Amino acid sequence: MANGITGCAITSWATALPEQIVTNFDIMTLFDTSDQWIVERTGIRQRRAADGPFVHPAPSGSPEGGMGTTAKLATRAASSALEKAGLTGREVDLLLLCTTSSDQLVPATSSPVAHALSIRGGAMDINAACAGFTYGLITAASFIGAGAERVLVVGAETLSRITNWHDRTNAFLFGDAAGAVLVEAVPGDTSLLGWDIGVDGSLVELCYADHGGTGMAMRGQEVFRRAVRITVESASKSLERAKVGPSDIALFVPHQANSRIMSAIAERLGIPGERTASVIEETGNTSSASIPLALAAAADAGRLTPGDLVLFAGFGAGMTWGSAVWRWTGARAS
Ligand code: COA
Fold first, then answer.
1. pTM score > 0.70 for this model?
2. d(C-alpha 22, C-alpha 56), whole Å
3. Distance, CA 305 to ligand 1 centroid (Å)?
C-alpha cells in the first residue's frame, strides 16, 4: 500500500503481436472485396491473426503449451512492460485484463496471465468491448487512489477466433494484439485529470457475437454514426472536467476502429491529424488492445514529453464508451 501518495502515472508500456500478417490481398481470397475498397473505407491494409484461415495450428508441446491465445499475447506484452520497468509480477498489486475475447468462460483470462507473471496481488478481466482499455485505465487510477501501489492494465484480444471470416460486411476490420501499461502510485497529483464512461445497453444488437454462433455480426453504418457522436460527447466531457481545451491536448489516442471514424472524431473535437495517434493501417481494429498499441507506438516514436496532456477515447459494442485526459509523465527510472 502506498500510504499518503495519491498521484499516479503510466511508467512503462509494451505491446505484443501474433506473427501472422493477414493483408487485404489475403482477405480477397475469402470473398468478393478489394484492397482499394477496404483501404478507402477503413484505412486498414493489414492485421495480425493468431487464429483463422491463414494460421496453421502451433505444434503441440510448444513452450506456451496449454495457455489460451489471448492470455499468451497479454503475457508477452505485460512481461515486456514489467521488464522495461525493472519489476516483476510480485510487485504488482492488481492485474486488469481488458478483453472481449477471453480464452474460457471460466476462469477469467487474467488468472493464467497472473500465474505466468507471478502476480498474486489480484487479477480480473474487464469486458467493455472496444472501450475496455479506457475503463481499465480509469479503474487503475481509482485503485491507486484507494492505496494500491502498482496496477498493470493490459488490453489483449484474439478477435480472429470470433470473426466470421466469410462475412464480407465486417471480417476485414479485426486483428489480434495486446498492449500493456503499468500505472504506479507517485508523489504529487493524479495524472487522471478528467474522465467519462457510459453505456447504452439498448444498442446491443448493433454489434454482437453469440456463444456457439457464427461470429461477429455488426450494423456497420449505424455503429459508425453513433460511435462518432458518442465519442465526441464523451471526450468533450472529459476535457471539460479536466478544465482544458482541445488545443491543450498534445496527443489524441482514439480507439483504432477505422481511420474514417477516427478522423471524424478528431475533426469534430478540433484536434488536428498530426496530433492523433494511429496504427490502424497495420493492425486493424484490435478492440481493447488498440489504444495501448497506438499509445506505445507514439511514445516509442518520441511523440510525448513529460507534462504533455493525452486524450484517450474509446467506444465499442454494448454500446460502451469511455474517455480520459491524462498527464504524461514518461518512463520509470528503473
Ligand atoms: N468489399 C467490397 N464491397 C463491399 C464489402 C466488401 N467487403 N462489403 C460491402 N460492400 C459493398 C456493399 O455491398 C454495398 O454495395 P452497393 O452500394 O452496391 O449495395 C457497398 O459496399 C456499401 O456497403 P455499406 O455496408 O453501406 O458499406 P459502408 O460504406 O457502410 O462501409 C464499413 C462498411 C463496415 C466499413 C463501415 O460501415 C464502417 O466502418 N462501420 C463502422 C464499423 C466499426 O468500426 N466497427 C467497430 C466498432 S468498435
1. yes
2. 13
3. 38
